[in-house]
């Protein structure tokens, strides 16, 4: 059911003061701060239930940050402070958060286009159109899986899954598995498969952090220090933060949880990059050809804002031009949840609340001035 702030207008579209696109942690944090300021809004979520973007990830996923760093504004995550929550705990927390603050969340609403109409924004989905004065895109742009074109050349008998489709070792065929992409997702998936089958892990070794996040030092010193750096030091307002942002946009940082010796002890074989297909099988950079029963692509994501039909993208750049989430060229359009929006913590539960507060304040101020 839609907030009483909505009303029908002559265009046939519903009129809402502010539309928040995305019902994950970023969208809910924006909702919290908008509600505090008395700004009418609705949250549009493509998923069936709030939190489904977490429920749909692989079964054994746990956060890399402890519970104390993962609460949204106004409600802590209900878990032991130094524990690392599971993806289902996070999903249930987000659902409970939306219920506690009685947000108007329209689920099963996949936004297909955002454009301008008569000076206002038109937000279109398959089943509803909404016009709004302000639109907050509260979701990561990295929603399209990056899979190399030569994947189509592999033998159809080889089962191929992206990291989004993978659930657990029992859901892939018996026989060897090739995990492509050696960062956090790839190393975790490779490790849990090695107990049951021959497992190859392909990709550049990005390094590893010098402590175990589950160990005493990690829980008490290492992780809090990193969180402080991510949230307080590495931000776009200082040279160190801008350098870190540029570096993280070029390549991923070190692996957080899994160590090289964990992979070696489990029998995971590190192999060079997959560079193509030969006779229907993955070909490696060193000339070898592997014969896996399945391939799991943990090769990351690419930005996909093709549904935003507004001039907010530079030529050849797929991320919007913004200043800490504000878009000067399109007043009333905002972003929250993008990697390094304002700091290294911006895409984490730790950081979205601060960005959401700033964006909600801008919306509230503009309304008072209107």
Report a brief summary of the structure.
This protein is α/β, with parallel strands linked by helices.
Nearest-angstrom radius of gyration? 22 Å
- Going by helix content, strand content and strand pairing, the class is alpha/beta
The CATH architecture of the largest domain: 3-Layer(bba) Sandwich
Please tell me the total number of domains: 2
CATH topology of the largest domain: FAD/NAD(P)-binding domain
The stretches of 5 or more residues where confidence is low (pLDDT under 50) are 1-11
List the helices and strands in order.
EEHEHHEEEEEEEHEHHHEEEEEEH
As a percent range, the share of strand residues is 15-25%
CATH class of the largest domain: Alpha Beta
Overall description:
It is a single chain. By secondary structure, the chain is of the alpha/beta class. Strands 1, 2, 3, 4, 5, 6, 7 and 17 form an 8-stranded mixed β-sheet that branches. A 5-stranded parallel β-sheet has the order 9-15-10-11-12, with helices on one face. A two-stranded antiparallel ribbon has the order 8-16. β2, α1 and β3 form a beta-alpha-beta unit.
Give the topology, please.
Blueprint: E1 7-8, E2 14-21, H1 25-36, E3 41-44, H2 52-55, H3 87-100, E4 105-106, E5 111-117, E6 120-125, E7 129-138, E8 142-145, E9 159-162, E10 177-180, H4 184-194, E11 199-202, H5 216-233, H6 239-250, H7 260-266, E12 269-271, E13 274-278, E14 281-284, E15 294-297, E16 301-303, E17 333-336, H8 349-369
Parallel strand pairs: 2-3, 2-7, 3-4, 7-17, 9-15, 10-11, 10-15, 11-12
Antiparallel strand pairs: 1-2, 5-6, 6-7, 8-16, 13-14
Helix pairs in contact: 1-8
């Amino acid at each position: 059911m839609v907030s009483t702030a909505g009303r029908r207008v002559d265009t046939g579209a519903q009129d809402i003061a502010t539309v928040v696109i995305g019902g994950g942690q970023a969208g809910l944090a924006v909702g919290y701060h908008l509600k505090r300021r008395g700004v009418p809004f609705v949250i549009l979520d493509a998923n069936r239930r709030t939190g489904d973007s977490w429920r749909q990830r692989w079964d054994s996923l746990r956060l890399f940050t402890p519970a104390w760093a993962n609460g949204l504004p106004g409600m802590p995550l209900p878990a032991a402070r130094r524990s690392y929550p599971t993806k289902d705990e996070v999903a249930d927390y987000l659902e409970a958060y939306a219920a506690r603050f009685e947000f108007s969340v329209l689920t099963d609403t996949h936004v297909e286009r955002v454009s301008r109409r008569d000076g206002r924004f038109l937000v279109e989905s398959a089943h509803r159109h909404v016009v709004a004065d302000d639109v907050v895109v509260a979701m990561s742009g990295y929603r399209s899986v990056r899979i190399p074109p030569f994947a189509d050349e592999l033998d159809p008998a080889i089962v191929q899954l992206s990291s989004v489709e993978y659930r657990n070792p029992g859901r892939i065929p018996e026989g060897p598995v090739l995990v492509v992409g050696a960062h956090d997702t790839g190393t975790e998936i490779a490790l849990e498969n090695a107990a049951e089958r021959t497992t190859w892990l392909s990709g550049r070794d990005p390094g590893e952090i010098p402590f175990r996040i589950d160990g005493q030092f990690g829980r008490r010193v290492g992780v809090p220090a990193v969180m402080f750096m991510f949230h307080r030091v590495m931000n776009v307002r200082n040279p160190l933060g801008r350098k870190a942002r540029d570096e993280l946009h070029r390549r991923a940082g070190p692996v957080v949880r899994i160590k090289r010796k964990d992979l070696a002890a489990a029998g995971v074989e590190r192999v060079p990059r997959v560079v193509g297909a030969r006779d229907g099988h993955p070909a490696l950079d060193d000339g070898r050809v592997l014969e896996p029963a399945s391939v799991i692509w943990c090769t990351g994501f690419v930005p996909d804002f093709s549904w935003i039909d507004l001039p907010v993208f530079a030529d050849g750049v797929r991320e919007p031009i913004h200043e800490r989430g504000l878009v000067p060229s399109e007043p009333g359009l905002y972003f929250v949840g993008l990697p390094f929006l304002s700091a290294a913590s911006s895409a984490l539960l730790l950081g979205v609340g601060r960005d959401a507060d700033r964006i909600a304040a801008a919306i509230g101020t503009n309304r008072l001035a209107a």
